[in-house]
Amino acid sequence: MSKIIQRFSATDDHGRRYRLLVWQEYVSTATRSDPSHLSPSMKYITTEDGESVNRLEKGQYEMAHTGVILRSSDPDAP
Question: Which domain holds residue 28?
Answer without folding.
Answer: 2-71
